[in-house]
Amino acid sequence: MLRVALHYTSTSCSLSTAATPCAPFTPLPKLGKKWSEYQGLNYWSGLLDPIDDTLRAVILRYGQFVDAAYDSFDFDPSSPAYGTCKFTRASLLSGRGFTGYRVTKFLHATCGLHLPRCRWTPSPRSTWIGYVAVCQDKDEIDRLGRRDVVIALRGTATCLEWLENLRATLTCLDDCGAGDARPMVESGFLSMYTSGTATCPSLQSTVKAEVARIMRTYGAHGEAPLSFTVAGHSLGAALATLAAHDINSTFADVPMVTVMSFGGPRVGNRSFRRRLERGGTRILRIVNSDDFITKVPGFVVDNSKNNNNNHNNRADTPWGYDEVGKELQLRSGESPYIFKRDVATCHELSTYLHLVDGLASSTCPLRATARKMFNEDFWCGKVGIF
Asked: Which residue ranges does the record assign to the Fungal lipase-type domain (predicted)?
């Protein structure tokens, strides 16, 4: 299976006390009581083709939360802080236009591979992978229609994470089910999600603990509804799917949980998809049809454009992968601004944001007013494969 090494060539992100945005900030209109529609209450019925302008702004905004996770990560292997966050919780979102949000928790993921300790060990086992941010500002809460909680996760950035991605066999998610009914997910993704060390709790345990704390603080008796949006790109999209499943299956009376998946690979089998659907997890899978990473790992028998949501004809086997959620399909080949067609370019987060910004409908894949969002200040090398 093809993998591409990450090349990070940022020209605008530097080691400073406050983060500098690498993407034009996308403001949201007032959502009010319609917020749940844009979070997938009706599975985005009537909003995708042609794409609703408010939904476009919502998708771009969550993409920019993920962009902030990339910008905040120390990619430099020669740095003493390699694999950590370059900013404090207070400064991570400052200057990016995310008014009213406060980062409440940093998230780390641990590689489950146990390599021998030696001088050439390529990267730390545990690295910073994202954050949790809670909307705190009353005016912003009124505008959004609820208290928004964002869990943002970056894609692959270290050699050990890259090695985890190679573990593409399916493994049982838990002890539930038997035979063909067993939910199964990709081994490497599950390892990254559940592994921890004596000094670094697993991503799974950290997410669940922080969600529990937020629900206690702002739950049933809060002044505004609560929602959780788990957004990720590439590997981060796969981990976001696992985290959303965990939140919905762990907590009683959980608020709406939505996944914004940018360029995510396949995660699990048909039983896993059914588990997600029964749990009410809303997943919007934003896919560039020219992005190879969204077509791996594993196989799906019926994966034609006209049957993206038809699972009846696919291989009825626990060992085959199945697509999850609702798909928003993009095509990088339609953009006059994208000159390269290589795997890395088609998978870039910046490519995805540009295509979402320009998308009109399936028959008009790019508006004439589309912004060139990946200029030299924005093309920050967020490949994250995968």
From this structure: 150-299
